[in-house]
Design brief:
- By secondary structure, the chain is mostly beta strands.
- It has one domain (2-61): Beta-grasp domain (Ubiquitin-like (UB roll), Roll).
- It is 11% helix and 32% strand.
- The protein contains 1 helix and 5 strands, in the order ββαβββ.
- The chain has a 5-stranded mixed beta sheet with strand order 2-1-5-3-4, with no helix packed on it.
- A hairpin with a 2-residue loop joins β3 and β4 (39-40).
- The N and C termini lie far apart (41 Å).
Length: 66
């Protein structure tokens, strides 16, 4: 199925969860915030939230600086 992730179209597996998506992208879940279709997800929801087809997902990384 297709999803828009950070502005780009991607094929993702059916019934893919946010946790699976982050693992596939090699992203550490503790260092990001995920927004799906305009709603910010709580980290506790990542493992149970299945991504619907044609969803728009933004993965926002924390960046430190000085």
């Amino acid at each position: 199925m297709k999803a828009i992730i950070n502005g780009n179209a991607h094929d993702i597996p059916d019934n893919c969860t946010i946790t699976q998506l982050l693992e596939d992208f090699g992203i550490t879940p503790q260092r990001v915030v995920v927004e799906m279709d305009g709603t910010i997800l709580r980290p506790t929801e990542d493992g149970e939230t299945v991504i619907p087809s044609s969803s728009t997902i933004e993965i926002i990384r924390f960046v430190g600086g000085g």
